Amino acid sequence: MEFTIIREIGADVSTDLLVLFATQADKADTKASRTEAFTAVDATLDGELERMIDARSYTGGAGERIVFPTLGKRKAKYVAVIGIGKRSTRDLDVVRKTGGMIALIAREVRARRVVVECVEEPKHAVSNWAARSTEALVEGVLLGSHRFHAYKGTMHKKEKEPPAITTVSLLAPDGRAVRSMDESVRTAQTLCEATNLARDLVNTPSEDMTPSRLADVARSLSIRGSHISCRVLNEAQMERMGMHATVAVGRGSMHRPVAVHLSYLPPKRKKRIAVVGKAVTFDSGGLSIKPADAMTTMKIDMAGAASVIGLFRALATVKPDVEVHGIFLAVENMPSGSAYRPGDVVKAMDGTTIEVLNTDAEGRLTLADAICYAAKQKPDTIVDLATLTGACVGALGEDIAGLFTSNDALASKLLDAADEAGDPLWRLPLYEPYAQLVKSKIADLKNITGTRYGGAITAALFLKSFSGSIPWAHIDIAGPSYVERETRPDQPYGASGYGVRMLVKYLEKL
Ligand code: BES
Ligand code: ZN
Ligand code: ZN
After folding, report:
1. pTM
2. C-beta of 476 in contact with ligand 1 (< 6 A)
């Protein structure tokens, strides 16, 4: 998909789809203002646009849309009018969703060429609006048009998939904005390519996305000029390093565990950050086996690692002045004669002993080792992303990830980055008294609490000690890593690639 910045939209522009925006009036009953492009196009259609809008009591509210064919009257085959809400409430997320809607409409009318007018600035001035709204809009289009078709077969070929968009022409508000808009397009392309890579890895069935395959993908990122290198440890080496908890989780599977350490070492580096991802390539629950319904989506249990891989893909292009370590310990959690059992006591890399009372609470066991390993790199900060608990989904729903950290400065940086990236994130408490609930009578810790309540918090508290004194944040992405019920047009069915864009924004700001 190619994006070009244009200086004007001719009244009779030739394209498959022309996208115009309608602003909602700030006060009810007043008529919404119309943009220049809207008025110009409407004039060539004899006021048809305006009549159509009137007839449908269309207010221009965010997401309201009218799409119609011009039936040969104009060179634009279809015109879409998309509501972008009031100027007083407009923000970048509205623009990102609008981009997603453009992708949806383009599919519906099978458009290859799309022309889009600019999104008027909100009432409250936003610095670099033209550039930032361009980035959000392009993100919406790229994220909204991504589909995972690697496993579609002969039936699908007969169904005639809509063609992909080839070119999107974006109107610049003025000549000065063109350069920064061009740059925004490139940024959005980098971020979305990385996000879509993470999505593809998560969408791939566990049969094909095994621990060693995940390591292969990580290895493939270390290309010349990227400043990225990749170290992979096999099971024996993991044992030697003391990653016994992780190896125990992987013991029931025919696929052997691997440890992956990606490093990005730019010439100039001010800070050192470690990013850890949960990498359970399939979570059956192990001997504490999951009910069938809870198991159907468990190929997504490596989404944290997929986001780490997506991040590194983006780092190769963005090249921030930060040293970054990406770490994941990939295992498959399966029941079998060799599987670890409830009642077993396993030892993490720092010597902490853990009583396993439920083999389905495996994520925290692998993360214990991964966070220990990350701490050994002596980073300034550790951030982990993990599809860790159903309880977090219960607390925040399916779109929002949970943030846990006792470091307020780190929390605010991550929340800002998430907001900018459009990755919904909400802070939850690391309530210290609950830490008692994961203390074991026979070992140091136990991996479940014995209560149904507060599971996202107790899981986070379980992880806390492994980071030692290094500032650490845990992000529970069990909800948003996979979209089963679509709530926004930039997040189609399937893996979301949650976290990739947030992590890039976070690192860029350091
Ligand atoms: N991988 C799951 C968590 C999960 C649930 C991810 C839903 C994505 C969607 C995790 O390993 C798990 O099974 N957690 C248990 C913990 C419990 C046994 C303490 C859970 O949440 O039920
Ligand atoms: Zn589990
Ligand atoms: Zn799991």
Report:
1. 0.97
2. no
